[in-house]
Amino acid sequence: MQNVNKDTASIQNGGAEAINLSSETSMDQAVNDALRYATTLLTQAPDHPEALLFIGTIHTWQRHFVQAIPFLQRATVLLPQNAEAFNSLGFALYNTGRLEDAIVAFREAIKLKPDFPSAQTRLEKALTALDHHKNRVKRYHELLAIDANIEEIARYRAALAVDSKDISALNGLGKALHASGRSEEAIEPFRLALSYNPVCTESTRNLVQILVELDRVEEGIACCRAILDHDPNLPAFHAGAGSLLRKIGRHVEALHHLEQACALQPDNAWFHAVLALIARELGHIDLAITHLRQAITLDPKETNYYLSLTLLTKLMVDDPALGAMQILVKREDTLGDQEKMRLHFALGKALADSGQHCTAFNHQLKANALRRAAIPYDETRIVKGARLVRKHFTAAAIAATAETGHISACPVFIVGMPRSGSTLVEQILASHPQVYGAGEVSTLSDTLKDAAKRFPDWKLGTSLAGLSVRDRHFIAEDYLSRLNKLVVNWAGEHAPTRISNKMLDNFNYIGLIRQLWPNARIIHTVRDPIDTCLSCFSIPFDHLDFAFDLGELGRYYHHYQEQMAHWSRVLPKGAILNVHYEHIVENLEASARRIIAYCDLPWDETCLRFYECRRKVMTSSLAQVRQPIYRSAVGRWRPDAATLQPLLDGLKGRPTKLRTPF
Fold first, then answer.
1. For the chain, what is the mean pLDDT?
2. CB burial class (10 A; 0-12, 13-18, 19+) of residue 437?
3. Which residues contact 95 (CB under 8 A, 6 or more apart)?
4. What is the DSSP code (8-state) at residue 622?
């Protein structure tokens, strides 16, 4: 150790004295001697900075870039002001394909030594290579924008070169990679951290977040459960596991985890609200109401809890929740637009339930105006798309593939307008022991979008007649495979004979459905137009952009009617079963028997007790289908003619004459 400082000078010269020997000594021998010299120093002082730099530099001269990098990374940590160290590190990184890390190193060298031609030249080469000789300046500025993340990555990697089990550095590296858009790469540091410390909540939380973003939900659930296996008293991870299980339809397991979360942390309002959400979708309405009221008690300013409560139950005039909402609305200037919107929808529902219809509708007008202002809606695109479908799907185009479609009779499609009785129809069907109700799922549109990518000569919304029988069967099988994967918690002895898809706007794809599966069942639910539209207007839908303006809502209904009339003209008689909500209310058994017979299933009495079916229901009608048939939704209250005029004009396909007052 006594000779270390004394020998520093010769190492700082880069081994030049050892290399510049007499001509009798070969260059290779000189290099080997210098390496042995530096290696000896490292045995005496493992963190000797000049020795590390020298060995790394020699390796780069020998083009042993992989071997050079750890020495140079450590050298830059110990010699943070040495521009040559960063330049050499950048050169090694560049030659191993780590271009972004190389750019960081070259820029650091230039920062330390602005007049550094070698680093400047290498930086330009790295930038060019990274951008494939295009848009150099643009790419350079992009790199500057994400430079903070890249520097973070380099710093954490340097720390891990010293201690590969540094949990903090592993988490930091993963977060920096994620922040720079390299989510797949970010997974590994978090997994490594958990291999060293399985109960690290930060690593688990970070990993689950990325997995969910990458749509690897089941892996995210496994991570939550892994940490709970080590410590079951972590309420946030019970809640996280439950939320993810709900996302993939495993509601019974989800409910268990949320019950654990609430037991461990009973003062957390969000836990109670999520438990209520899962419980209501399973049909445990009383349990859901109990937990929503608890959430309101814990967080009385959260308007979403009131909205959820009013969608599940009627509030009496002396209900504390109604009183709290009426106090809150007097201070609505303190709320954000989303909070106001939810509060007005909640008051609209609660007051309508108690017979205060005019006041209730005024709240609905305010709520819808706020919702409409927050979302874009391209009505022209909807109209053009519908016309294009009608142009392509003639009777001849559909008949051309009639004999070559997939033979499966498994798919059942329930289409129509929201609030037209579709959830009730699916509940009747799903009560049958051979039917699985998948609910509102995007399976068909997802399949068709992927098909458009796979078969670029075919465009979504046009006839499939141009594809081969084999290609059409591939699309049909792809959908059936996706559909079968949706079947969870199935109690039947055999696989379901029918699986329903209640994505209502699939009415746009009826022509494609007939081409792909001539034996598929298509059920069209119908309800009085004004009742349907006013019911839509009372609900804060997440994905129905047309429902928040009376004129737009009426015109959408008009376009939908035109589309269904087209299918009636071009399809064989009986291809679509029209089911009127009012007829179900008037005669449940006759309607249910008609639906079951159309689906070519044997009659089963359980279909009349649809409200006992405990499948998950996730639509706005989830509470209604848990009770026997009632008639109060037929002929619902309507506002005065002036207020209703935009809707009436829209239903005739006319532009709105009057602005909706509120």
1. 85
2. buried
3. 60, 63, 65
4. T
The mean pLDDT of 214-233, rounded to a whole number, is 95
Distance CA 587, CA 594 (A): 11
Question: What is the model's pLDDT at position 28?
Answer: 52
Per DSSP, the three-state class of 479 is helix
Alpha carbons within 13 angstroms on the beta-carbon side of residue 455 total: 20
Contact criterion met (CB below 8 Å) for 271 and 263: no
User: What whole-number percentage of the chain has pLDDT above 70?
Assistant: 87
User: How many of the other CB atoms lie within 10 Å of CB of 64?
Assistant: 13
DSSP codes, 320-350: HHHHHHHHHHHTGGGS-HHHHHHHHHHHHHH
**Residue 364's pLDDT is what?**
95
CA pseudo-torsion sign 242, 244, 247, 250: negative
- Here the contacts of 644-647 (C-beta below 8 Å, separation 24 or greater) are 644/530, 644/550, 646/549, 646/550, 646/551, 646/554, 647/530, 647/533, 647/534, 647/550, 647/551, 647/553, 647/554
* Spatial distance between the Cα atoms of 289 and 69, rounded to a whole number of angstroms: 61
Q: Are strands 521-526 and 435-437 parallel, antiparallel or unpaired?
A: unpaired
Integer angstrom CA distances of residue 90 from 121, 143, 467: 12, 15, 52
Interatomic CA distance for residues 6 and 2, integer angstroms: 8
pLDDT at 112 exceeding the cut of 80: yes
pTM of the model: 0.69
CA distances from 164 to 177, 204, 264 (A): 17, 18, 35
pLDDT band at 303 (very low <50, low <70, confident <90, very high): very high
Quote the CA–CA distance of 163 and 394 in Å, as a whole number: 69
How many Cβ atoms from other residues are within 10 Å of residue 607's Cβ? Answer: 24
Q: Note the pLDDT tens digit of each residue in 413-423.
A: 999 999 999 99
Contact in structure between 199 and 229 (CB atoms under 8 Å): no
> Please, which pLDDT band fits residue 500 given cuts at 50, 70 and 90?
very high
Alpha carbon of 32 to those of 20, 25, 39, 44, 400: distances in Å? 13, 11, 10, 19, 79
Q: Per-residue pLDDT for 132 more than 90?
A: no
